[in-house]
Design brief:
The protein folds into 2 domains: 128 residues, Rossmann fold (3-Layer(aba) Sandwich), CATH 3.40.50.10860; 128 residues, Rossmann fold, CATH 3.40.50. Helix 8 packs across helix 9. By secondary structure, it is α/β, with parallel strands linked by helices. It is globular. The protein contains 9 helices and 12 strands. The two termini are 27 Å apart.
């Protein structure tokens, strides 16, 4: 049985390592492979014709995939973002487990009434802003395309800003939702070094490399940093739970899988 991580590009993806190791531990006879699909028009064909029972959807397809499934869960509907497609006898069901992963990564952070700067306005940003809305954080959004950020603000609340409009001392938490800094472009960061301060909490959803340039820069000024690895592992384990309708000890296996991935 084959499953797939679907996106483009996929050279950075560690989903096969995570899923295939978990399949072995759980006694599941399956393998997850990388599939770049050759474009949006091919995604449904690949899922149904290979077929894949579980498809982990990554950039840049999370937003478009909600239009490819017959049914989707409430969180996917609210965020308009699907990162998990389960093929049940030829019918495709969409889920958003990114929200679960974000909640897990931020489990020890108090977000209520905190000023949170969100960088980016794509599929993952929708999930991040949804979590912040649920936890009553004050959202400020910076995006290369201001119109897209404004669209997200219209859906979830908050404020679209430019770098020139914000002062670092007014920001409590910074969350990068863009692929900037992802392997192999490891010398790039979405945040100017001069903006970072010691009181910041900085969360980068990029997990490869585990310590991105953004997190390195933040660490150098004494800021608290959160790697995207927690989010990545937790959302992946939740995908397996949904696929197999089973309960996994997320906390236990997240720590175990992180050690394997880091190696």
């Amino acid at each position: 049985m084959h499953n797939a991580v679907i996106g483009f590009p996929l050279t950075h993806s560690l989903s096969p390592i995570l899923h295939n190791e978990m399949y072995k531990r759980l006694g599941i006879d399956a393998e997850l492979v990388r599939d770049e699909c050759g474009g949006i028009s091919q995604i449904t064909k690949h899922i149904l014709n290979v077929p894949y029972e579980l498809s982990a959807i990554t950039m840049p397809y999370k937003e478009i995939c909600i239009n490819l499934v017959e049914k989707f869960d409430e969180v996917a509907g609210r965020t308009r973002s699907v990162n998990t497609i389960i093929n049940r006898n030829g019918k495709l069901f969409g889920y958003n487990t990114d929200v679960y992963g974000i909640e897990y990564a931020l489990r020890n952070i108090e977000l209520k009434n905190k000023n949170v700067l969100v960088i980016g306005a794509g599929g993952v940003a929708r999930s991040v802003v949804y979590v912040l809305q649920q936890q009553q954080g004050n959202v400020l959004m910076v995006n290369r395309t201001k119109e897209k950020a404004e669209g997200l603000v219209k859906s979830f609340g908050g404020r679209s800003v430019t770098w020139e409009e914000i002062k670092p001392e007014d920001i409590d938490v910074i969350i990068n939702t863009t692929p900037i800094g992802i392997y192999p472009s490891v010398d790039q960061s979405s945040v100017p070094e001069s903006f970072l301060q010691s009181h910041h909490i900085v969360f980068d959803i990029v997990y490869n490399p585990i310590e991105t340039k953004l997190l390195k820069d933040a660490g150098l000024v004494g800021a608290q940093t959160i790697s995207g690895l927690d989010m990545f592992v937790a959302q992946g384990l939740r995908q397996i739970e949904l696929w197999k309708d089973m309960k996994i000890d997320i906390a236990k296996y997240t720590e175990e899988m992180k050690k394997i991935i880091i190696l």
